[in-house]
Amino acid sequence: MPRPGVVLLLCGVFVSAVGPAADVPKPPPFQDENMITHGPILGRLSSDGIGVWARTLRPGPFTVLYGTARDQLDQSSEAVVTTRDHDNTGWVHITGLQPNTEYFYEVKNPESTGRSGRGGSFRTLPDADSMKDAELNPKGLFNFSFEFACGNNQNPRHGIGPALPTFATMLREIKDDVHFAILNGDWLYEVRRDYSPQQWAAQQGIADDEVPEILKIAPTLTGVWENYKFFLDQGENLSHWHREVPSYFTYDDHECLNDIWGTGSIGLRDRRAVFRDIGVQAWYDYLGWSNPVPFSSPVHFGRGTFQAGSDVLTDDSTDFTQMKWSDYNNLHVHWGLPNAGVNDN
36-327: what fold? Predict the structure, then answer.
């Protein structure tokens, strides 16, 4: 006959001694190690230079390692420091390169001993001096080729989705045949445009009142920043393309707001029209840096006041005498509502 089982409960008594709180060192405040979160993106290609863009998790420096052999990145760029007022984005302009030469590169956090693995390759443009031949080519003429397109709609309802297989095809079949690409607008389409400065501050690990001044004036800028990050995050083929093929960019309506119109029309009161400069600022932060421009003035944001009966705009934070007025042609009054950059059609 089976004997009944016996269950034993073993109880122990643990005694610990606790010293005074002052004897216990406080742990340092938690801070994520800085790292590259997005990029690289190649641009600003020339016969002796290249631009390399990246975004960091927190404000801080990054550099670019590069060389003419994939396993020997024996040169390093100067560091560039990213800042929150540009969503921790920045770009390095490497010059002094050899024409018509393939280079390999990788972006790096100089505060880290490891490698980021974020890199690729590119070829500089030829130049006349390196192509001259006294008998066969005395003028130093040369050929170059580029890819040209418009539109990267990843949104499943209105596009092919985030896979964007054309970029996979181009990477496989034409990457080594083109020197650069031109994206003629609509790099992104509106999504997550309601991402608020409060959400952005939480992402950055800072208090709401620590956001940069530009977000206090143009708070809907965070939604466009988030739009770019979202497209880079889910568009794997697109991101890979930009690591390997330098690009120049124009902006169209979707960089700002779908079917935007009348942005230069005096007196027009339209939500889409006055969102232009917010969209363009984000475009410069993420893509527009690649294009050489004939002017040096940035988009100017400010908070101004009018007195009743006066046509004089006052902004105590701006010295208007220091602005180069030939670079400016419009004054936009922002819509100011949280949905200012949201596409509703």
Answer: Immunoglobulin-like (2.60.40)
